[in-house]
């Protein structure tokens, strides 16, 4: 091993001198060279970018993976540069449990059939979640992590060099100041007598040494100033690159928002399809019986006197016999009307058959009930159109 004692001693001396200068600056006992205001603003902006990027990255990881153990596992695999094993999502696991339950309860029973239907859509939700996690990691998390582990490390390294150059510059300034004070003091109070030539020669030699010390300090100051200016320019160029980093993160943020929108749109689409499947299942078996006995999802009658919840309604059976293909509008026109009032539609609703009325969010319709009708449904009227509407999609107005 090549061990250079002289270099080690020199580096230790430089480190000690810088430490003394830094301590004296903190105590107010030494002057400090201030950086250019523009450079100071760039440094402040860079620090803020780094801090907020760390917070956003950490919280996004928590959002995408709430399990701390799973995040630690992902971190370890990332540091080891190994591919993370495929992990089953919670929705996919739930779907598998439902399938297993349906097999045990009987796939030909109403409950078993419903479990199989819901399990299929849970697995679709799990697949959409997996795609969302992968897209977010590639388009958003990786660029943020690359900035912190790449660009920011380079900036931090150059900033440390700049701080060292500034300390060296201030040390040279203090050294020159001391040399000039010593030279001025020697010139003001000469330490010799004209009657003693030997003292005159010694004092002249000391004066020459002091002058030489001043020249040396001035030269060192010029070198330190040049190195400081060069390092300040390098640091400034790197810090100005933060603007490009912001633009890059802006694009990544847009990609992340788009991935979120796509994911939630897929989930909404799957849930609407699932709701239609369950409604068709309930309508198919509810002709001779009440649908509540097949797909129990009761909604409190309190919805008739207050705002509706955001849950989707499960339609009940029509009061007419499945043997008579007559529309609900024709049937209900012969039944007494009770409690007609206005209602505001909370969500879009697509009618599943001719007995129902399609709805658009925020429109106003007239609703009422009829004797013997399922409490989860009302009759809705919009102009000449009439049909069943789910209570949970309405906000009843006084």
From TrEMBL:
Species whose genome carries this gene: Pundamilia nyererei
BAR domain sequence ranges: 24-287
Keyword flag Metal-binding: no
PANTHER family: ENDOPHILIN-B2 ISOFORM X1, SH3 DOMAIN-CONTAINING
SMART domains reported in the protein's UniProt record: BAR, SH3
Superkingdom, natural source: Eukaryota
GO cellular component: cytoplasm; membrane
Signal peptide location: none
Key words, A-Z: SH3 domain
Protein name: Endophilin-B2b isoform X2
A Pfam entry, by short name: SH3_9
The keyword Lyase appears for this protein: no
Family: Belongs to the endophilin family.
Gene3D superfamilies: Arfaptin homology (AH) domain/BAR domain, SH3 Domains
Domain SH3: 338-398
Any one of the GO BP annotations: membrane organization
């Amino acid at each position: 091993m090549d061990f250079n004692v002289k270099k080690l001693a020199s580096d230790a001396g430089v480190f000690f001198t810088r430490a003394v200068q830094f301590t004296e600056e903190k105590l107010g006992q030494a002057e400090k060279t201030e950086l250019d205001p523009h450079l100071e603003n760039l440094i402040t902006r860079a620090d803020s970018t780094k801090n907020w990027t760390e917070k956003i990255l950490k919280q996004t990881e928590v959002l995408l993976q709430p399990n701390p153990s799973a995040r630690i596992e992902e971190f370890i695999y990332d540091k080891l540069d190994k591919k993370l094993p495929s992990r089953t999502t919670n929705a996919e696991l739930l779907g598998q449990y439902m399938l297993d339950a349906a097999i045990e309860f009987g796939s030909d029973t109403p409950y078993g059939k419903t479990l199989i239907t819901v399990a299929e859509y849970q697995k679709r939700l799990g697949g959409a979640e997996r795609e969302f996690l992968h897209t977010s990691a590639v388009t958003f998390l990786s660029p943020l992590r690359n900035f912190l582990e790449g660009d920011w490390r380079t900036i931090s390294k150059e900033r440390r060099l700049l701080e060292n150059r500034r300390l060296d510059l201030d040390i040279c300034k203090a050294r020159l100041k001391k040399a000039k004070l010593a030279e001025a003091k020697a010139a003001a109070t000469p330490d010799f007598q004209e009657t003693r030539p030997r003292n005159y020669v010694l004092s002249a030699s000391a004066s020459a040494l002091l002058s030489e010390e001043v020249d040396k300090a001035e030269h060192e100051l010029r070198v330190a100033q040049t190195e400081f200016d060069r390092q300040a320019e390098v640091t400034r160029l790197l810090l100005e690159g933060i603007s490009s980093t912001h633009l890059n993160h802006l694009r990544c943020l847009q990609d992340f928002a788009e991935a979120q929108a796509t994911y939630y749109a897929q989930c909404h689409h799957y849930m609407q399809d699932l709701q239609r499947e369950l409604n068709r299942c309930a309508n198919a078996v509810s002709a001779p019986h009440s649908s509540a006995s097949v797909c129990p999802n009761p909604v409190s009658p309190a919805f008739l006197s207050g705002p509706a919840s955001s849950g989707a309604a499960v339609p009940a059976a029509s009061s007419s016999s499945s043997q008579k293909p007559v529309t609900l509008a024709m049937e209900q026109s012969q039944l007494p009307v009770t409690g007609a009032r206005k209602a505001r539609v909370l969500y879009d609703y697509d009618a599943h058959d001719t007995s129902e009325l399609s709805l658009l969010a925020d429109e106003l319709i007239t609703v009422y009930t009829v004797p013997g009708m399922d409490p989860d449904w009302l009759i809705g009227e919009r102009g000449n159109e009439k049909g069943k509407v789910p209570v949970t999609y309405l906000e009843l107005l006084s």
